[in-house]
Amino acid sequence: MSIGAVVGAVNVVFGYWAKSRIEGSIKHEYDKKLEKIKSEWKRTDILLTERMAAFKLLQKRLVSIRRYCESHISFEIGSEFGPRPDDLEAADNKSILTHWTELETLLDENLIFLSVSCSASFEQLRNQLSLGASMELGLTSADPAPEIMASKADGYQAISSLTNECIDALFKDLGFASDN
Q1: SS3 per-residue string spanning 143-175
Q2: In a 10 Å sphere around its CB, with 0-12 CB exposed, 13-18 middle and 19+ buried, how is residue 13 labelled?
Q3: CB of 96 within 8 A of CB of 159?
Q4: What angle do CA 103, 92, 136 make, to 5 degrees?
Q5: What is the rounded distance in angstroms from the CA atom of residue 55 to the CA atom of residue 24?
Q6: pLDDT at 62 over 90
Q7: In sequence order, which residues have a C-beta less than 8 Å from that of residue 7 and are 6 or more positions away?
């Protein structure tokens, strides 16, 4: 056997060894990155599921507030065909203060899932619900102020409009276009 043959055999063995080491290293790195991506997908899937559940609860509460306000607007303007407060289900026919309190509880539990812009929409709604609760409290007095009586429909309309904005913000956070 000649030296050339031995060197050639060593080169072949070394080449095979280097190739297998490089392939093994690449496969190991690929497997690590693939496992990391799978882990991130699983975490994202879990978070999306939790976020969707939170958004459903918030949206349900917002729709209830909107139904309440729309029934009072219809009643105030004397609409023959609009919903009336007496037509509402018990879950919807609550005072603004009760709706506000229930919404606050949901927001406290799910604020982590809301974007900054969505949180800002809810903050505007909170402010309007505060005014609405004060309006309803004033309406329960024996002699409500004429200004309160004259602006009831406007107060309910403002809450309803901000409720729609919050629903739109939730849809936007999820990446869906709103049909409102």
Answers
A1: CCCHHHHHCHHHHHHHHHHHHHHHHHHHHHHHC
A2: exposed
A3: yes
A4: 75
A5: 46
A6: yes
A7: none
pTM (2 d.p.): 0.75
Give mean pLDDT, residues 70-88: 89
How many Cα atoms within 13 Å fall on the side-chain side of residue 36? 6
**Closest to 174 (Cα-Cα) out of 64, 56, 63, 37:** 56
Question: What is the Cα–Cα distance from 59 to 107, expressed in whole angstroms?
Answer: 11
Which candidate, 138, 132, 121, places its Cα nearest to that of 154? 132
- Report residue 113 as tokens: 């899932």
Higher pLDDT, 177 or 98: 98
User: What token pair was written down for 127?
Assistant: 């402010």
For 14, other C-beta atoms within 10 Å of its C-beta total 10
Burial class of residue 117, CB neighbours in 10 A (0-12, 13-18, 19+): exposed
The pLDDT assigned to 179 comes to 56
CA 147 to chain centre: 36
pLDDT at res. 120:
96
Q: Which amino acid is at 80?
A: E
